[in-house]
What we know:
With 199 residues, this protein is of the alpha+beta class. It has one helix and ten strands.
Amino acid sequence: MSKGVVGRSPKMIQNVFVLLLLSLFAILSTFLVTVGAQLYRNTVDSAEKNNATRIVTTVVRSSIWAEDGGVGEIRIEKLPYEGKEYNVLTIIRKYGEEKDTTWARRIYTHNGYLQESYTEYYDHVDKSELGDREFEADPEDPDYVYAINSFNPEYGEPLCELEKFDPALEGKLLTVNLETADHLTSTVRMYMRTGGAGQ
């Protein structure tokens, strides 16, 4: 071996060592950035799922609290539409000076969304004007009935994404089971205030 080859050999080893260290640093840096990005993505996804659950529970709670203790009445209804039965939380309230117009605020799920609709619940009409609508008899006036307007979930306004909305009312305890689009489940339990809405 010549002196020139022997003299360059340690410098070449040193250069290769430096290149190896730089390569290792680059690989570790890329790994750390990738892991950090994945952790950040997981944190954001978890926060979004948590926020979706909070939004749904807040909407349900605020809807009930707005009527509880007032003149509204809360009912759980199973309403049919095009061969499917909807579990509906209905808040019935009378408006007007004489409180002769009754409106229903309905909360239900349709096409993957929690929806809310306002419809006139019934009109005080003469039996001859009834047609083929459903009705409730007026106990104070046999010639008049309360004609119930039909339910159409298409008319609702989407509030947030939700797959399952299952309300139940036992006495003054309202329980609503919820399931988000990500299949996270939660339950809202509310006890109605004294003198508030009832079944």
